[in-house]
Amino acid sequence: MSHRNAPLTPTGRLRLARCVVDDGWPLRRAAERFQVAHTTAARWAGRYRRHGEAGMCDRSSRPHHCPRQTVPELENRVLQLRREHRIGPLRLAVRTGLAPSTCHRILHRHHMPALATLDRATGEPIRRYEHERPGELIHIDVKKLGRIPDGGGHKVLGRAAGRKNRTQTGYAFLHTALDDHTRLAYTEDLPDERANTCAGFLTRATAWFAARGITVERVLTDNAWSYTKNTWRDTCRDLGISPRWTRPWRPQTNGKVERFHRTLLEEWAYHQPYTSEAERQAAFPHWLDWYNYHRPHTGISGNVPASRVTNLTEQHI
What we know:
By secondary structure, this protein is of the alpha/beta class.
């Protein structure tokens, strides 16, 4: 394909070649007229003599022969290992004796997608989806997080001292409701994940989204015991919400909230050493506000979640 600054398009090449071949122009005169080198004019005139108008099109720069290309048997071995074990170029190189760059080129040549785009369980390409409007679907999940003892854990005191300071501090149950379209998140630290606790959280999360102009229509959860009891179903019915559940053993169906919990751990829970659970919890409201209103989200083209809610950031007042 011609680059954008090429002096000759296929039509311009044809005109140049006809001036030389059909009209008898000298090469240098034709080159000066079309503002190209005389060697370029000679090349297109020669192609026109041999192939006519068809010779004016771009040709592939790929060589006719690749004597050093990997033999088909080794290529098939690389592809077979990739399909069976779903491993990347580095591990393929160890098993086949090839260079990692060679394995990468083989995978690219055979249009094998990157591992990050595949479902780890099935090896099939991940089907990504996004609902069209806020509130159409809310993802809910619970993240169980060990509480930090007073004085700090092993990240502050080191492994040995942290072991001595270990007490039965219990767990924090982080309940999160995340909007599928905007990625806006609402999280509470609750003492357990029982049915009544989950139902109460749904009621408060629905009110939180309503205060931001989002009406919750459906809610998606996994098949945990708390979400399959009548308490959960009755609460959904009273709020006018349609409950949905993921397929068993398919946590990726609820992947948006799962990914939010990973971000939460990396950027808040384990982002820095804390000397107590109270210190960590005190930092959470600020982090959640930053996530919703200021943090660019790669899943929505670098926008912040609040920007996808009509006038939530008051940019149109």
